[in-house]
Design brief:
The chain is mainly alpha-helical and 72 residues long. It is built from four helices and no strands.
Length: 72
Amino acid sequence: MTLIQKKLIRKLKNLSEQSILEIIDFTDFLVLKNKRQSRFKESLKEIKQGFVSVIGDKNDLDEHFNSLLSEK
């Protein structure tokens, strides 16, 4: 687990699942706006993994996020 994921997990434990899903939607938006910046996309992947660690395994969410990251 990366440092950014550990920090996120600590901060997110007090948020509701709905709040976390809203943040994930925002990261999806950022990915779409910054498709060509691979370093930025990697950071978003780490952030998203932190979210998933807090709310549990969300396979459909994973697939959705990964499909956004793979678009060119």
